[in-house]
Amino acid sequence: MKTTILGYPRIGNQRQLKKACENYWSGKTEITTLIETGKNIRQENWLLQQKTGIDLIPSNDFSFYDQVLDACLTFGCIPKRFESIKKGDFSTLYFAMARGIQTEQLDTTAMEMTKWFDTNYHFIVPEFTIDQTFEFFSKKIIEEYKEALELGIKTKPVLIGPVTFLLLGKEKEKGFHRLDLLNRLLPVYFQIIDELIALGVEYIQFDEPILALDLSDRERKAINNTYESFHAAFPSLKIFLANYFDCYGENLETVLQLPVDTLHLDLVRCSSQLDDILTSKYFNPNTKLSLGLVDGRNIWKNNFENSLRFIKKAVEKIAPKNLFIASSCSLLHSPYDLELETNEKNLPLEVKQWLAFAKQKLEEIATLKGLSSSEEEAYLNLFEENKLANLNRKTSTLIHNKKVKSRVENLLESDSQRKNSFKIRQELQRNTLQLPLYPTTTIGSFPQTKEVRSWRSKFKKGILSQKEYDTLIAKETEDSIRFQEETGIDVLVHGEFERNDMVEYFGEKLEGFAFSSFGWVQSYGSRCVKPPILFGDVSRENPMTVKWSSFAQSLTKTPVKGMLTGPVTILQWSFVRNDQPRATTCNQIALAIRDEVVDLEKNGIQIIQIDEPAIREGLPLRKEEWKSYLDWAVKAFRISASGVNDATQIHTHMCYSEFNDIIENIAAMDADVITIETSRSEMELLEAFVNFKYPNEIGPGVYDIHSPRVPSVEEIEHLLEKAAKVLPVEHIWVNPDCGLKTRNWPETKSALQNLVKAAIKQRVKTLQTA
Asked: Whole-angstrom Cα distance, residue 58 to residue 204?
């Protein structure tokens, strides 16, 4: 029996990669420093896995920004707008594709970005044209394999499978389907495989998570043809086919007949599939199985007793030499190392004993192998420790709150209903707020400078008193209000300078959460988040946001939005307890947010935004499970929003999601205003709302905040004109596509000034033609 993982975190245990990228982007360091940082992280990861006892260690799982972007460069799938820099400096091209580029010579928008299946990780969306060509452009996979060889480690290179790569992309013009490009793409794979085999590669891991979705016959045929062709061309290659995040489902029959050496199973998300495979008439006992038993997406300690049952069941049908013990998916979604957590105030020892981060997950995999071998006795102490920790969690008094459970059990249907329909509310809100056509606003946060972040750090360390900290935050908040007034923005925000993260901030103020100090995971590029640990019943003991929202509103007569994170997003972006249904946990959070919404209204806040960017992300991968999830997710949002009067305007925000399949459910959320990302897609994502005839008001984002580019007035006008052709003008809001926390002030001010100018020009045009 052997061990493996599908991938390892790449940001560094102290977020070294984030800092190196941002220093390079700002011109503080040269590209050589960034490259060296990446090399150090890769080597540390490989050596740690080797030391821990991982037998088959992955390579090419590292990325400076995103693995799908890396694949685009590997296959030479580079949009034509980057052609002028394709033959120049590689790093300029790479980051221009990810973030856009704006210089005196070149002004080019970034590629689209969306969520990686049902995770909070964002990937760069490949772009395809009818005359698309491919070439082996970036040799990163070769270089990193050689790099590991120099350390004496023979790795398993990881490649996104060709069908997944194509299906995750988008056709940028009509007249073809992206799967039509498969036969053009496969020769590049052959070239890559050929070069790797020449270097002595034994295994290549092909990631095909598209197999977790409902595929058509054509798509399944593409999978079959791809792996038949690989086997025909390279019969000695050991193909490690990896699917994760769900079962193979209806694709299982196809997959079991593929000529692959090893089939990976995510047994955390789909425990039933081992039985399905072992009893299938199509299963070949000589096929190796990789048992994904250690959760790559959550931080709870593995239950060795349960995992050993799976291993025992597999061993009854399959020789141990044909089994791998593995992580369920890449550990990319896990924090680095629990040993770094020494702050018992944030993370009590009782909770800490229930957890395992990426490093500990490696140890769990190695221990499971040991417990399944002839050396079992040497691991029995670890087995007993694991058993005790899991028992302690079941019986802990920290977890359960009878009052919270009772409140959820006694929820009524009326608790999820506004008093009147949108039409009635809209009229009341227009009379109350007196906003112009094309009202302008932002999504919530303003740039968090190093100075602002240092205040929060000093306050937490006790260097600043509460009074000193509040004085600094108040000054920053007032400055932001004055800037917004001077710019002419119609609905203001307080800027969120007191908040570290849109989920962590609320978790810190709610019961049932614990926190790590170094539990960072990558969201996209250099953006890292530190999800709170939701271990127990959730309740709100005191107001969380009223203080700063009320203060901001006291500074101005212009409406200031109260800013909250919605229950589904808090659930999705936390490490969530796995001992009760997620719907139950979500309703607990919804009631806590509801209490905050009511308090904001009582304190004079007339517009309240409840952000739900994770609604789409939480959607199960199989359509048969959608209804159940959407029913409880939409209801949780409505519970959080329905405690206020009709004249109070409820906003929500969603970003980087495809809405077509769930637009009816988004409408059922019944937010008075929804703001969405549409700038990177040139309003393409608006089509779902138009086709559905979305009844409420909508702000299609006209400023891509994930790029350092400053959009021109004309560029924003162009997007607004596109929106005005398909939406009622009285329903259109004007806003960026997301919060501005990660941007700097000069570009933010320029972009928002242009945004307001464009809105005014569009407003005047509309009134002139009325």
From this structure: 9
The three-state secondary structure class of 151 is coil
Q: Residues 745, 747, 752, CA angle at the centre, nearest 5°?
A: 90
| Residues 6 or more apart whose Cβ sits within 8 Å of residue 551 | 474, 477, 494
CA 757 to chain centre: 33
Q: What is the pLDDT of residue 678?
A: 76
* Mean pLDDT, rounded, of the chain: 95
Contact 74/136 with Cβ under 8 angstroms? yes
3-state SS class at 537 = strand
Q: Which residues of 31-51 are buried (b: 16+ CB within 10 A; e: fewer)?
A: eeebeebbeebbeebbebbee
* Burial of residue 190 (number of CB atoms within 10 Å: 0-12, 13-18, 19+): middle
Report the sign of the C-alpha dihedral through residues 510, 513, 519, 520, in that order: negative
- Give the integer Cα–Cα distance in Å for 742 and 746: 12
Give the whole-angstrom CA distance, residue 136 versus residue 68: 15
**Pairing outcome for strands 107-108 and 101-102:** antiparallel
**What single-letter amino acid sits at 390?**
N
What interhelical angle do 745-769 and 466-487 show, nearest 10?
A: 40
59 and 157 Cβ atoms separated by less than 8 Å: yes
* Beta strand extents in 612-661 (DSSP E only): 649-654
Give pLDDT, residue 681: 66
**Upper half-sphere CA count for residue 616 (Cβ side, 13 Å):** 22
| CB-CB contact of 89 with 132 (8 Å) | no
* pLDDT at residue 163, rounded to an integer: 98
Q: Which domains does the chain have, with CATH numbers?
A: 422-769 (3.20.20.210)
Q: What is the Cα–Cα distance from 154 to 665, expressed in whole angstroms?
A: 49
Residue 657 has pLDDT above 80, yes or no: no
Secondary element (H or E) of residue 608: strand 607-611
Q: Say if CB 499 and CB 565 are below 8 A apart.
A: no
Section 713-722 average pLDDT: 92
% of the chain beyond a pLDDT of 70: 99
User: Nearest 5°: phi and psi at 343?
Assistant: -90, 100
CA distance 172 to 79: 10
Determine the Cα angle at 653 with ends 650 and 655, to 5°. Answer: 170
Q: How far is Cα 533 from Cα 399, in angstroms, rounded to an integer?
A: 12
User: Of 731, 696, 734, 730, which is closest to residue 718 (Cα–Cα)?
Assistant: 734
Residue-level pLDDT at 689: 85
DSSP H helices, 297-379, are 304-315, 349-352, 358-371
Alpha-carbon distance values, 41 to 13, 33, 54, 63, 140 (Å): 9, 12, 17, 10, 15
Look at residue 688 in the predicted model and tell me its pLDDT: 80
Mean local confidence (pLDDT), 642-651:
97
Per-residue pLDDT reduced to its tens digit, 456-495? 999 989 999 999 999 999 999 999 999 999 999 999 999 9
Q: 3-class SS at 368?
A: helix
* Residue 749: how many other CB atoms lie within 10 Å: 17
E strand or H helix at 632, and its extent? helix 626-641
Q: State the catalytic residues.
A: 706
Copy the structure tokens of residue 560: 């200031």
Q: Is the pTM of this model over 0.85?
A: yes
Instruction: Judge contact between 116 and 122, C-beta under 8 A.
Output: yes
* Residue 108 β-bridge partners: 101
For residue range 23-76, list pLDDT tens digits in order: 999 999 999 999 999 999 999 999 999 999 999 999 999 999 999 999 999 999
d(CA 408, CA 737): 34
Side chain identity at 537, as an amino acid letter?
D
For residue 574, the cross-strand partners are none
